[in-house]
Amino acid sequence: MNRLREKVCIITGAAVGIGQACARRLAQEGAAVALFDLLDSQGEALAAELLQAGCASRYWHVDVAREIDVSGAIDAVAAAFGRVDVLVNNAGIAGANKPTHELTEEEWDRVQAVNVKGVFFCTKHAIPHMRRARAGSIINLSSIYGLVGAADVPPYHASKGAVRLMSKTDALLYASDNIRVNSVHPGYIRTPMVEHHLRDSGATDLDRALTELGRLHPLGHIGDVDDIAWGVVYLASDEARFVTGAELVIDGGYTAR
Question: What is the pLDDT of residue 191?
Fold first, then answer.
């Protein structure tokens, strides 16, 4: 219950899915949590839920693709909670599921703006607070598709490959400041994004489509949001004090082939 006691954690894309699960588990382990999202009703409801459970929590409306939003919100978190110890860069979108030659520049750029530039902005503005404290943990949500390819959603795959290598670069840049940077690589997890992807791909029976998707994983099923959240808790905690520049793959064996 106290693995993250006295730590202040920012989670982007915190209102639903993996981000929501991360917020709940980080708070459960004693952290104060700052929730960043564009989904105001869900984000505010989650903050209220956590406060009612006795956990320090607050919601900020943040578009991670806008540097002014990010810089202002991170400074506000530090003012409200006194510090920034952990950043979970979770916010992301799948984007258009088209072959490369059919994509528009706007479709490509929107995915990179959220999934790549968002990680850059949040990291850029969290680092000064962590450097002053001489400690920090940055956890970047990549994907199995930051490790292997697939014949769909080119902008998404490109963005997640970028996040993987950004994590390694920043791990090296800030190791002397005792700031750790790692990436997490989920397999298919039941989230609103995955459900939308299946429907967009023509699935009419969602449960059947999820079962079929599960068969792509050697363990025989897709993952749960908590499977990822507990990995994030580990990387945020002092248990992972010697872990930086690493790839935590939580994918039911998908990439073990």
Answer: 82
> Tokens in use for 135?
């400690």
156 is catalytic: yes
Q: Cβ distance 227 to 77 under 8 Å? A: no
* Average confidence score pLDDT of the chain: 95
The single residue of 156, 174, 188, 254 carrying the catalytic annotation is: 156
- How high is the pLDDT of residue 236? 98
pLDDT for 195 beyond 80: no
Sheet holding 247-250, edge to edge: 57-61, 32-37, 8-12, 86-89, 136-141, 179-186, 247-250
Q: For residue 195, with 0-12 CB atoms within 10 Å meaning exposed, 13-18 middle and 19 or more buried, which class applies?
A: middle
0.90 cut: is pTM over it?
Answer: yes
